[in-house]
Write a structure and sequence with these properties.
22% of the residues lie in helices and 27% in strands. With 313 residues, the chain is an alpha/beta fold. It has 2 domains: 2-115 and 240-312, FAD/NAD(P)-binding domain (3-Layer(bba) Sandwich), CATH 3.50.50.60; 131-236, FAD/NAD(P)-binding domain (3-Layer(bba) Sandwich). The structure holds flavin-adenine dinucleotide and NADP nicotinamide-adenine-dinucleotide phosphate.
Length: 313
């Protein structure tokens, strides 16, 4: 029987593992289907993690020392994809790909989220080299420069507003004439002088060279006219997929409370409504989707697991 099963080995899961094992739990497994590190390993740099100020290091370099530190105190890595988590009586059954099962007293789910891709030409080529899905992470690279934002939902408009305080101009490209975002958010954006709404339009192509993105072609879907925008960063906000599949039950519902958008409901202790089941990182409600906050969540969840097990003993 595991004291704790941690699912997902990004910043949240690794930190949860560090705190759980260093806090005295001896039987803790981290189920990570790939190499530990999480989404940030796809990033060419990280500039906003306090205490780490090395411009020539990639997200992969950044996570390398995390692995060494987090496994130092006895955390075990099971390189397996978890299929499901089920509460059976007082404990949990974790089923991995292939059908093998593990019993655990507690579970911390840290499976993260994935920003959706829009599917235009050049999006994958220049992802991380001018095409971004994170304004908090990459907005500063475009200080006093123009940027383009794709999307018409709450995230796109809120992030456009955030960028408008850093960048010279923000061009919001949306495929329809009506915005999906809440009316007060749209009003706020429309009042900002340096945000320009370009409706009935799509990104036809992200263009660039070996150095990265150099500009975007924007197509008006009513006239088919194409406008080229030079020297712009491109931020894509067309929705997120929260990786909550492991929490689905066999009837298609969830084993714990989840919002309409798929984020797991937790309190400030990272507790779900199911005793012994905790969340950390991008999967939880109102996650800021930052490495530093995912790590903070992981530490909170692990400390709560230790208290929970002490109360059961
Ligand atoms: P993740 O990092 O998503 O880790 C989840 C892990 O769970 C993954 O390793 C995945 O393989 C594993 N997993 C998922 N499902 C299963 C399963 N069923 N079984 C087993 N394992 C599973 N944040 C910043 O603070 N600063 C930045 O500069 C920054 N830049 C970014 C750049 C890019 C390109 C991207 C994509 C993100 C960036 N972020 C940045 C955001 C940051 O990476 C995330 O907020 C953070 O990684 C979330 O951590 P997490 O542990 O919750 O989830
Ligand atoms: P969203 O509501 O699904 O909006 C995605 C936007 O991207 C839509 O405008 C959509 O266009 C557009 N889009 C989707 N696929 C596209 C593609 N391939 N090419 C071009 N455009 C594309 O996603 P979100 O904005 O991330 O929000 C997700 C949920 O979180 C929503 O329920 C939202 O209300 C909520 N949220 C709330 C807040 C808040 O309350 N403060 C903040 C952020 C998010 P169409 O409109 O034409 O479909």
């Amino acid at each position: 029987m595991l004291d704790c099963a941690i699912i997902g080995g990004g910043p949240a899961g690794l930190t949860a593992g560090l705190y759980a094992t260093r806090g005295g739990l001896e039987n803790v497994a981290l189920f990570e289907m790939g190499m530990p590190g999480g989404q940030i390993t796809q990033s060419s740099e990280i500039e906003n993690y306090p205490g780490f100020f090395e411009h020539d290091k990639t997200g992969m370099d950044f996570m390398d020392t995390w692995q060494k530190q987090c496994f130092h105190f006895g955390l075990k890595h099971e390189m397996k994809k978890v299929e499901s988590v089920e509460k059976t009586g007082e404990h949990f059954t974790v089923t991995v790909e292939g059908g093998e099962t593990y019993e655990a007293m507690t579970v911390i789910t840290c499976t993260g989220s994935v920003p959706k891709r829009a599917g235009f030409k050049g999006e994958d080529t220049y992802f991380g080299k001018g095409v971004s899905t994170c304004a908090t992470c990459d907005g500063f690279f475009y200080k006093n420069k123009p940027v383009t934002v794709l999307g018409g939902g709450d995230t796109a408009l809120e992030e456009a507003f955030f960028l408008s305080n850093i960048c010279s101009d923000v061009y919001v490209v949306h495929r329809r004439g009506e915005f999906r975002a809440a009316p007060p958010t749209l009003d706020r954006v429309m009042r900002k002088e340096n945000i320009h709404l370009i409706t009935d339009s799509v990104i036809e192509e992200a263009v660039g060279d070996a150095m990265g993105l150099s500009g975007v072609d924007i197509k008006n879907t009513k006239t088919n006219e194409i406008t080229h925008m030079d020297n712009t960063g491109l931020f894509v906000f067309v929705g997120h997929n929260v990786n909550n599949g492991v929490l689905k039950d066999d009837k298609g519902g969830f084993i714990c409370d989840v919002t309409d958008w798929g984020q797991v409901v937790v309190d400030l202790s990272m507790k779900t409504n199911v005793p012994g089941l905790f969340m950390a990182g991008d999967i939880r409600i109102e996650a800021p989707k930052q490495v530093v906050s995912a790590a903070g969540d992981g530490s909170i969840a692990a400390l709560q697991v230790i208290s929970y097990l002490q109360e059961l003993a």
